[in-house]
Amino acid sequence: MLRTKVLSLVARSGPSRLMSTATKLTTVEVNDKTGIATLTMCRAPVNGLNLELLKDLKTSIDEIESNKSRGLILTSSNATIFSAGLDIMEMYNPEKERIRAFWTQLQEVWLSLYGSSVPTAAAINGHSPAGGCLLATSCEYRVMLPKFTIGLNETQLGIVAPKWFMSSFLSVLPQRQAERALNQGRMFSTEEALQIGLIDETATSKEEAVEKCAAFLGTFARVNPLARALTKQQFRAADLQQLENERKDDLEKFLFFINQPAVQKGLGIYLEGLKKKAKK
Amino acid sequence: MLRTKVLSLVARSGPSRLMSTATKLTTVEVNDKTGIATLTMCRAPVNGLNLELLKDLKTSIDEIESNKSRGLILTSSNATIFSAGLDIMEMYNPEKERIRAFWTQLQEVWLSLYGSSVPTAAAINGHSPAGGCLLATSCEYRVMLPKFTIGLNETQLGIVAPKWFMSSFLSVLPQRQAERALNQGRMFSTEEALQIGLIDETATSKEEAVEKCAAFLGTFARVNPLARALTKQQFRAADLQQLENERKDDLEKFLFFINQPAVQKGLGIYLEGLKKKAKK
Amino acid sequence: MLRTKVLSLVARSGPSRLMSTATKLTTVEVNDKTGIATLTMCRAPVNGLNLELLKDLKTSIDEIESNKSRGLILTSSNATIFSAGLDIMEMYNPEKERIRAFWTQLQEVWLSLYGSSVPTAAAINGHSPAGGCLLATSCEYRVMLPKFTIGLNETQLGIVAPKWFMSSFLSVLPQRQAERALNQGRMFSTEEALQIGLIDETATSKEEAVEKCAAFLGTFARVNPLARALTKQQFRAADLQQLENERKDDLEKFLFFINQPAVQKGLGIYLEGLKKKAKK
């Protein structure tokens, strides 16, 4: 099914080649004409960011970096969900070693995506809460399909988006709007997101979203790639350096918070709610 | 007179209780239904921020914090002035010990209001220059009545708004607008303030302003209070930490500046002007 | 020719006196009525910022500072170019000592212009790429004539705008727009610059642009000059301090980058292009 989709995309967008087949939770296809790589998250059912998906994301981003692609488009194979964010199963009754690896991997993904030397864009073809919004706002451009929602809704789940989530958010929104949305855990509709600047454009289909992302990445075609990469990384250096400097503290802070009985209880109630919803 | 007002408010807004009666320069009333506390400044004639009003403000904010209120609405008992800002009598020919206590108390009020774990809003029911604007911009939301003015007009008075005044201002306005307004000491009309984003809404009466503030605070009703508080404090941490780190320096800088003969002379001329104006 | 222009300006704007005649690449004239100094760059053919023009700029800014002028208006004697930015001849096959002096002088100019205690405005009467845009965005206000372009297009030339170029840019534009424009090396038309906030007003002639700049500077007329200067410098302190702390590193970084064979090759190709263009 995924392969069909990939192949059909290939057929429509011209010459492409599938780079990764070893990983199963992401695919990367490079358009040979444009040099732009499309990185697709495809972990059923909702692209929940668990340790394995994060590992695949990191591997794929590194691959795109090392292949000197002209751009990276992040999207989802799911028809209604870009990414549901951090997989709550990783945080509920967590296993000691695994949860450390999980958070560390999330840090890695952010550092490599937000700090990527390759220009990046997100084709947001579905809902994009929490970690999904983090991935989208770590890219340099966002095109979103209508009737979906996006936002850092961590406070709604009883958790705290760490500083680096805020960095990505603040790279897109003004301080006043960013703080209020974070405190409220607000989810924006596609239209609201466009108006406030959380996304840059809308598109009526995934195909159109990918094309608009490619058009944005195309604006760099005549720009010196090294100068552009150094410019971007210098612009984001303070944000990136902050997490680099505080990685251990950030991990311990997360572990301390997530292991609070009240937080665990909250996640349990949330999961019960999801199960009941699923049964209906 | 104040009591009548408080009681009439109570009558209109449902069950409330008056928390503080010991202090005279502020009152706090909590709506038992919503859990929202209204903190009213009531120092005649213009809510000038002197040492005593600042002490009462600090006590009231702490009280609201410790009572785990669901929100804080800051407003004024004066019909045309929210707060006239720092009481110039504290700065003109100051007494050595008192002016130190005065500035230290102002720092305390800012740290506890800007860093409050309780969500905050200002019902700006009158003019709000300088320190009045500082209090308003330290809240998370602002509703203002028409035909008043708001701004950090320190340069008009020959004084310099310290860095933390700038932090509150920058949490609301874009850098370009914030810097220009600070340099000009610009006072914005209600309409201008709305357009630039210095306030969030207008209201035609104090009652409506308080209701709109309560509606904003109500957006947090379904959000986890601990996660929300930690999110807000993390967002504001760098600003708060900056003053914490520089409290002594900030005090000495203020004392040095305020004791300059030219500054004292300027304040004297300003006070003469006020007296003449009052006689007319 | 320049002198005629200066004199005709004098005739039109009332009593002025020409302050500097020793330097040849800039002129300063002070309007005796308003106390506002107009600093005009006049290095043929395109106000390319070479070592000598930078030295004259620094001298003129210092002169205006020390004369306690009420304002500084930066403009160009060229009818179509404000400043073409850094003179590429300084960077192509550079002489060791001179290029160090060149970059150091550029740092000096920025520190004194961006940190100037005198309020500043730019009458942008021509194209303003790269270093030209740096000068314009280091001022507090910008009025631009139609049908010209402005922007930090360094990535188009294969070079990297250093952090302090970014500081000036970010003092004017929101983070999202600033980053994207920097990465793209985007040049904005006058209309686009107005819409995004990169300039504040447009004017149909240089005379009108200078008048509008003077009107902006006039908003400070009733503001205490010392309080205003300290407010501005405190607002810009972090940006200024960053370069002060990193001046040597910033110089070495520039030298390392500019001496890369690929960068030299790129500059060579660019210069060839200019020559061909000139022949046509």
Produce the secondary structure layout:
3 copies of one chain form a homotrimer.
Chain A: H1 2-13, E1 16-18, E2 26-31, E3 36-41, E4 48-49, H2 51-66, E5 71-76, E6 85-86, H3 88-91, H4 96-114, E7 120-124, E8 128-129, H5 131-138, E9 142-144, E10 149-151, H6 163-170, H7 175-184, E11 188-189, H8 190-196, E12 201-202, H9 206-218, H10 225-235, H11 237-258, H12 261-279
Parallel strand pairs in A: 3-5, 4-6, 5-7, 7-9, 8-10, 9-12
Antiparallel strand pairs in A: 1-2, 2-3, 10-11
Helix pairs in contact in A: 2-4, 4-11, 6-11
Describe the structure.
3 copies of one chain form a homotrimer. A 7-stranded mixed beta sheet of chain A has the order 1-2-3-5-7-9-12, sandwiched between helices. Helix content of chain A is 53%, strand content 15%. The first copy, chain A, starts with a helix and ends with a helix. Chain A is built from 12 helices and 12 strands. In chain A, helix 4 (96-114) packs antiparallel against helix 11. The first copy, chain A, has helices spanning 2-13, 51-66, 88-91, 96-114, 131-138, 163-170, 175-184, 190-196, 206-218, 225-235, 237-258, 261-279, and strands at residues 16-18, 26-31, 36-41, 48-49, 71-76, 85-86, 120-124, 128-129, 142-144, 149-151, 188-189, 201-202. Chain A has one domain: 2-enoyl-CoA Hydratase, Chain A, domain 1. Chain A has 280 residues and is of the alpha/beta class. The A-B interface holds A 154-163, 166, 174-176, 178-180, 182-185, 262, 266 and B 119, 140-141, 170-174, 197, 219-220, 222-224, 226-228, 230-232, 234-236. Chains A, B, C: Pathway: Lipid metabolism; fatty acid beta-oxidation. Chains A, B, C: This is Enoyl-CoA delta isomerase 1, mitochondrial. Chains A, B, C: InterPro entries: ClpP/crotonase-like_dom_sf, Enoyl-CoA_hydra/iso.
